[in-house]
Amino acid sequence: MRMKKKGILLCCLASLLFSVTTVYPTHSSYAFSNQVIQHGATGEDVIELQARLQYIGFYNGKIDGVFGWGTYWALRNFQYEFGLDIDGLAGSTVKEKLVKASQYDKEFIRKNIESGNQFTYYGGTPKEQQVKKDKNNQKKQAQNTQTEEDQGTSLEPTAVNVPNGFSQNDIQLMANAVYGEARGESYEGQVAVAAVILNRINSPTFPNTVSGVIFEPRAFTAVADGQIWLTPNDKAKRAVVDAINGWDPTGEAIYYFNPDTATSSWIWSRPQIKRIGKHVFCM
Amino acid sequence: MIRWISIVILAIAIFATGAWGYQEHQEKNAILVQAENNYQRAFHDLTYQVDLLHDKIGTTLAMNTKEKLSPQLIEIWRLTSEAQTDVGQLPLVLLPFNKTEEFLSNIGEFSYRTAVRDLEQEPLSDKEVDTLNNLYKKAGDIKNELRKVQHVVLEDNLRWMDVQMALVSTDEPMDNTIIDGFETVEETVKAYEESDLSSGLTGISNETHEFRFIKGENISESQAEEQIRKLFKLDDELELTIAESGDGAQLPMYSASFQNEKEHGYIDISKQGGHPLSFMLNREINEKNLSLNDALLRAEKFLKANGFSDMVMFQSNQYENVGVFQFLYQQGDVRVYPDKIQMKVALDDGEILGFVATDFYRNHENTEYEEPSLALEEAKERVNPTVTIQDQHLAIVEDDFKERILAYAFLGTKGQDTYRIFIDANTGQEIKVEKLKAVETKWNID
What we know:
The structure holds two protein chains of two kinds. By secondary structure, chain A is mainly alpha-helical. Chain A folds into two domains: about 25-150, Muramoyl-pentapeptide Carboxypeptidase, domain 1 (Orthogonal Bundle); about 170-280, Orthogonal Bundle (Arc Repressor Mutant, subunit A). Chain A has helices at about 1-25, 45-55, 70-80, 90-100, 105-115, 135-150, 170-180, 185-200, 210-215, 220-225, 235-245, 265-270; strands at about 120, 130, 160, 255, 270-275, 280. In chain A, a hairpin with a 2-residue loop joins strand 5 and strand 6 (about 280). In chain A, helix 7 (about 170-180) crosses helix 11. The longest helix of chain A has 22 residues, at about 1-25. Chain B is an alpha+beta fold. Chain B is about 45% helix and about 25% strand. In chain B, strand 6 (about 320-330) and strand 7 (about 335-345) form a beta hairpin. In chain B, helix 1 (about 1-60) packs antiparallel against helix 2, helix 2 (about 65-90) runs antiparallel to helix 3 and helix 3 crosses helix 6. Classes of the chains: A mainly alpha, B alpha+beta. Chain B: InterPro entries: PepSY, YpeB_N, YpeB_PepSY1-2.
């Protein structure tokens, strides 16, 4: 009972807030923070930037909170049309012009982002026509009540940056392998294992895909004994992203082994590069 | 009475356990069989592909019409790639497949290069025909060896799982037909490599060249340590683990790690000249206070302070609370793509968390680049007309042969996608087309 009452109270509060925001839809406190927004940035400012650019017809992509190429060209075209320097950076002048030229209905955007709807935000078209509701009704409602409790917290992007050519799933699979193989190792030890996987993908003597390298029989002990299916932690994921972005503490190694347990004499014959933690890395 | 009841219960229990055990055994067998089948499939597939490959190279040699040659070479390329996939599925480590894989890879690259070339303009050279002849002969040898092994496998009903077991249980040399057979295959390829590979196919392997921009005197371990302490402002008391690289390293270096109350650090510093090649600092990153742009300014400042003055930002990405940047060396108005430096900056306090200059030191050289002989407008015409060109600059890129080429780099859009297209600034050839993709929807939101 108490929960219900609380819910009703929240609903009332929320509707109150809604009425306030509809009276002042472009309240200045909802405008950008004072950061310069550039290519690659993520977050609420990017959502606002994309929404405003879409409102005046420059941006046709998804409002997802990640400043990708689509947003970049939209911003440059905006700068061109409004006679500003064309540098693809959203600084204070750009933001001022943008705020003047467009409207930003934060609650409309919030509602749709948080309930996972597909939506657009073009000015001059009734908003109701720009939303494609998610079929998963239950989830939507659950998220909606959450929305009302969340008033005032920041908006989360619905997309992420990924290094060119790699999907989040590839990163996840590599993180699994790294965690299974080297969860007791230091950070560089984990980046090193991820780097070896990547070096193998580039090497002519190994398969050319993430899964090909990882699942090559007897290539990794963690795959053989099932430790690859442990849930990796954030450290392993960060290590993988660093390796994909170019960090390679191994000096381009394509093999590594644990000298305490390695039985194959062949592996000892490889030219060694260095030792990181428990692993010796070699060519 | 009680005795009878307990006997009955026990009998039922024993029967149940037996049934359960039998079922488990069946399941285990089913899985073993499935694994075995995977190996069998990969192996037989490989044999077949190599056979077919041999045939195709043979017909290529017999061909004279150029219109048919390119598709034929593409077919060879496709077959090698499938054969490679099959090799990748067979047990590694004690079966030394390296040479076989390398051999396949070489055929693949050779056929690809020649296939994409305009053979009308530039037909196969005598040397290339020689190479193809050699590849044909060796592919034949390998095919024969593989067929031999296959025959024994089929006749004696050999199981790959037994090889697997043999590999797991002992490191003694064992009497195993499959392993012996593959060792023969490997020897066959090795002989090929020693005799022919060095002459006809040099430059085809994917190996990178040596470090060009490492200059100066060798430094000692203690000098390296001193330099690292200075770079990270470390206390003299703080423990620093440092070691020199082994024989396998392409560039001799010192690697050091430290742990202070704030973070864990790891750095590689070249022995010659004492250049920091890369470092990374790992710590928990607090709430974001800085924008990606602020972080970029810190990274640029760091580069300037460390003597990299002509670097220009090429790519920036925010991953949670860190910013990752790629910089390219810019000479005049030419961006040199191989000379790149990566940096990572924390968005809580702006600390430089990571730095990689390996590519820069490997590729950088002081040369003057000539003016392009093709005008910008002419180059633009070489770009696919359905692409809207948004931006362009001059660039130095490496081609498949690791040679430097002056090119126009065009950034263009087609629908929602953005492409980077390189056009040779002298010949007008399209060198490379890349689709730029850096944003992906979170899969857990839908």
